[in-house]
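Q: Convert this sequence to structure tokens.
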Amino acid sequence: MGCPQCGTDNEDAARFCHACGAELQAGVAPGSSQPRVNCPYCDASNPQVAKFCNTCGQLLPLLPSTIFASRYRIERLLGQGGMGRTYLVYDLQAKEQRVLKEMISEINASIQDREYYESYFHNEAEVQDRLRTLRAVPTVLEPEREQDGRRFFVMEYMPGDDLATAMQKRGRPFAPGRVVGWALELCDLLDYLHTYTPGVAIIHRDISPDNIKLRGNDPDSSDIALLDFGIARLAPRGHHLTQGLGKPGYAAPEQLRGRATPLSDLYSVAAMMHFLLTGRDPNVNPPPFPPASELNPRVPQWLSDFVALNLREDPNQRSPSAAALRDALERGRAGHAAPCPHRDPSPGSGDP
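A:
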């Protein structure tokens, strides 16, 4: 069956052209012996040369060994979410492994929906590029551009697991000292993000164990990096973000109600700490959170209280800023009680 838009020959049963994605008239599929690839969305079988699924019209993943943009050899698909997928690639010019992230959206999506996907993908690439000097954020090595109808950007590759995978492999909670160390790294990063300029904060809104990546293969000695800035946004100081986005269990209650401030990120840090200290996933077992020390007797009482304080529903009852969160953790680790929260008018405290 010839495509009326680009002329490419398609199987008779195809609903969408595998080359350009145009909708076709359905027919009867003939037998075929050419190599096939299954669509990750509808599991339909497609010719290996297909770019779009001939059943649902979705953009198909790049296959291993494909040379993309005349530079990147696809090694394997690392992951896929609602709006993007990531690949491990080999950069033929730099002779190093990289991560390539591409935008995905339904081929038959409305113009409004496509603009929505594109705005979030562009935002992620732009925010990460702004933060290229920070060790705790993967460095963008090639900024966002389009090639062969695929919108993508390329960033550095870190060989370690994310913390959700590391926990699954470990099969038990992490040592409290290790969790505190990771939280201190996050606090340093969030202090930078939340005080990005004198009048603007960057609110991440998606801090969770699967978005925290180890920079090495040993969880006991590896630093971390924060991934996935797809829903991060710049917000004028004293204002909140109005879209109720975030991962259930890890997103603060006010964030899910469309009132995210920098304090919402601090809630997410505490929720992540609770998971790493206890193994209880709040995405599976929704709040309220039992005290961490009750679920894991190895958790010191001061740390259990600190986590509980920053999981309070009222943002005004949490630590007032990332810097205050870091200071309280450092005092607790040194054997001093963490202070009670108070409103702090300093930059980055937010205004719910």
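The longest strand covers residues 72-80.
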